[in-house]
Amino acid sequence: MVNLAAAVGNEPISISYIAKKEQLSPEFLEQIFFRLKKAGLIRSVRGPKGGFVLNYKPSEISVKTILDAVGEPLFPAPCADHGTKACPQQEGCLISPIWQDFYELMRKYLSAISL
Fold it and tell me: Where do the structural domains in the chain lie, given as residue ranges?
């Protein structure tokens, strides 16, 4: 997403270019770009100079929005997701409130950071 945000004049950037620049597998990036496209954050441009472009201004896309789109959880521990029963020791757990507060701070922080 940072590479797309840095593109001059919203010029399409290919997956192969980003893969080479960031030393990542093109197949891995294709999976991520599929999710970003499905979430409406990017769109594909066809043609010989095609690739991907952002659907929004970089300032309108938060890091949290990107993480949500690619399916990366923000929870440092299962109990951080308010209301989840993923932790068998949640009832009476002394650290659960700390994880929940940490999650809230992290969520707010990542929501405030944009491309």
Answer: 1-61, 73-115
